[in-house]
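Box S2. Input/output pair 1.
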Amino acid sequence: MEPAILIITLLCGMLVSRVGLPPLIGYLAAGFVLFTLGIKDTSLPILQQLADLGVTLLLFSIGLKLDLKSLFKAEVWAGSSLHLIGSILFFVPVLKVLGFLGIEQLDGFSFNQLMLVAFALSFSSTVFAVKVLEDSGDMQSLYGRVAIGILIMQDIFAVIFLTISKGNIPSVWAFALLLLPLAKPLIYKVFDRVGHGEMLVLFGLVMALVVGAWLFEAVGLKPDLGALIVGILLAGHAKSSELAKSIYFFKELFLVAFFLTIGLNGLPTLADIGLAAILVVLIPVKIVMFIYLLTRFKLRSRTSLLASFNLGNYSEFGLIVAAVAAQKGWLPPQWLIIIAVALSISFLFAAPLNNSVAKIYLRYQTRLMRLERHPLHPEDRQIPIGNPRFLILGMGRIGSGAYDELRSKYIGEILGIEHKQELVDFHRNQGRNVVQGDAGDTDFWEKLERAPNLELVLLAMPNHVGNLFAVQQLKRLNYEGKISAIVQYTEDADSLKDSGVNTVYNLYEAAGRGFVDHVIKELLDSPSVIASESAGEITNENHAIAADEQPVKSTS
């Protein structure tokens, strides 16, 4: 039967992906299909082990990407906490009323059981939100960062629940784990020396499953909590992002087993599907609650709406909470199926709603703006740019070099845009005119003030998608000046030119020319050493032109 499990899971995942939905819905469906074929989770213990590994690696990868400072922002920690409390206060009486109305799945439920179901329904999907943000290129946008921060706080709430649900009193040796940060220098030294490839993956698995999960379980704590904490411990390392990418497919593959085990618990009845549909109808209340709370923290109504729609669904962490509750006997196993169906249906509606959020905002803009509180959040105010002649998007090494060249050769105000606040502070200390903003974020262009005398925009961002998006936004704002961009690949240059960029600068070609110029200047007496006299003259002439024009070409 093993080949059938893989084939059915693959086919269901592909069918769901073709309609633009997360494959996890297909994996849930595959579990239901396999159950109808007579396969149950009890007959495949290895599947449950892989599912546990998937959840552990999910928490580890969240820890690797966690910026602790972002969690201390009021709109994140307070917003998520208040929404959790508000969701429970809303869902508990609603579920109680549904029980009184004769919904058999809620008949005779105790207050604690209602609290558990409400807690599971309060979560929003990290998997769905990340997919939507990556597809739209808004991962670094303010609303995207707020949404991800809230999701991480929800994940932490879930891990706390999972730890408490273990039920055992931790060993006295658990206090020794407080010394774990002292081992950070040693762990970082090992991290530096493992290199890349399979050694990096192996290091990540050892840290997540041994130092994290096994060590914490050995002293009576929840292994998932250990994986999260060890991930946070490694988050400050320069290679943490590379490690997260290296274990990504392991995590995703093992999570497939988790979603399969949900479906293998049994098929939903018509009554289960009906209750799941009722739960989906209640999602707008979650969205409205998020909008209200985020505007209380002085975010713009548009930012609040985008973040709230991104969070307007049910979560795989809700499934994890329900799975633990079912294993402990706190909830009937059928509730695992009900929440799985509600999760799937919520994704069906959330996907088109997120695609239409801009139209929804325009339609209700006046009403939504009444919710705003002034002064607005510092990161959500209009971006004053003065009256620059030159605008540089991306103030990394290339952008800062272009800034200095322009300042030395031309008269007129220059402005740099950089999304990393630490780089903004650095450039300001160096005397450069730089403001914080992310040109790959739709919010940035909505908040940007107009510059009537702008002549030239330099796209110096390392991400081609971001540069292309910036060109589209400039055209939308009816910018008529010149645009120049850096590229790494020839095909990127073609797409930028097609979109309206006047000149492109290929970094690799420029590096090659610069390298040869350096060699000629430092090591060779004359270019004629490597070419015939006539060819050398031509080469000399070309190099002279390149040397004269290179600063201009890189900035025009």
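Box S3. Input/output pair 2.
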Amino acid sequence: MPEEKILFTHRRVITAALVAALVPTVSCATADSTSGYRLERLVTGTAMHTINGLALAPDGSVLTANLAGETISALDPATGQINSLVPQRDGRSDDLVVAPSGEIFWTDPLAGAVKGRDRDGRIRTVADNLPGVNSIAFDRSRQHLYAGQTFFADGLWEIDPRAGVAPRLVARDLGSLNAFAFGPDGMIYGPLGKRGQVARIDPRTGVASTVAAGFRQPVSVRFDSRDRLYALDGATGQLIRIDPATGAKDVVATLPAGADNMVIGPGDHAYVSNMADSAVTEVDLGTGARTTLTSSPLAFPQDIAFDGNTLYVADSTALRTVDPGTGVVTELARRLSSELEFPSGISVTAQHIVLTSELIGTVQVLDRATGEPAGEVHGLDNPSDAVELADGSLVVSEPANGRVLRVVDGRPRVLAENLGAPAGLALTPRGVVLAAEVTGGRLLQIDPTSGEVTEIARGLGAPRAVAVAPDGSSVVLDAGGRRVVSVNSRGEQQVLADGLAVGHLTQPYARSGGVAVGADGTVFVAADRENSVYTIRRAGR
């Protein structure tokens, strides 16, 4: 399908028929005679979240790392079966490698740690104090382990797998070394994202030289069984064979943008991950033929918002919309091929889309008409959600700090504090801010001018998100109880649906899943555990 520019990346439309065909369907509609509401699936996804790094296990399965979803899983390439190996939060990972012993090692960029899992399942920290540690690989002897830093720092380290010796700095300021591999000459070959290059690096001295240049966003470098060199460009999706002697490049296959890593298995078949599609694709390096092993129309819907006509999805590594009537998914932007961060919270106004990134600590404001950036706030501490007031200022929640901020002209100040863990936010028609307070199970009302806080309701479990219904009631997603609860102006509660596939991220508080309400009272739920969207309507409607 030819690419069509929209916002600041390409657009893809996934039909309802294709959505339904991607995974086996389960019961699509249930009626709760107690609540009088009917639950229906609008978009069907998979249980695999935003796939990053890949490794091959001795049994032939493909191990997948996941940063946003904080899990490590095993994918059977023959059957497509998925098994969880390391749950969140220990499974938060960007890249991983398997030792000859069968032990798995992975990087956690946010914790700045390299971790390992023994064959008996015991997890331990191998190295820490390495902010942004990202890529990881053994040398060809399978005795020496190396890890590279990107984003938060820029370095290459040798790591003792037994944690008996402190990490050894090999080099600094290489240019953001991503997923690398060792060549037959004993040198490291790796992508330098900041320089758009593939480089050769001496693991003893750190001296680097350019092998090939002209990449938009190189993310992974590997060798096949004949020691031919390959690079993956995440921005273009191109899988490229490189002549190390001349730097000449030959495109083997072109995959969707957002490709994040690859590993080459027996028979010189590459397995390529795509975080925006939560996909693993097998590529025959001889012919370029591709087979998709797993994929999902929504990669990890962490939050949703509704503007009266369209449902907007903060899809962790992409920005997407869903047609509320048909379930058709349309992509507006994705990571690597655009300036999009990792959106985990979302709200919309008539003019803007407001995206919050917990991972990066930012709020991005986009012009809805053009897709161009209309503002950005940096340096926030794990922000959960943000809403825009009528004067253009923002209200942002920081649950880790128990506070809500107001941002005017890019400058944050504390609006209210000592709130527990305020997560999802919503604006009432009067311009008052509602906050779902996770740890106390409360729904709070906050005056955006004075910061005065009023408790509307408590006993709501672990409320992650809140939306305002047409009748003025509040609709709360209790991620801990896996239910949706309506709260009226008197604080009275009614459960609209329960047993939902929500609450994937639970530590240190509920951090994923969303709720929105349409003009007719239809409730939309981002079922983050299975990457789906559900509707809740009155029975008989």
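Caption for Box S3: Confidence is low (pLDDT under 50) at residues 1-29. The two ends are 37 Å apart (CA to CA).
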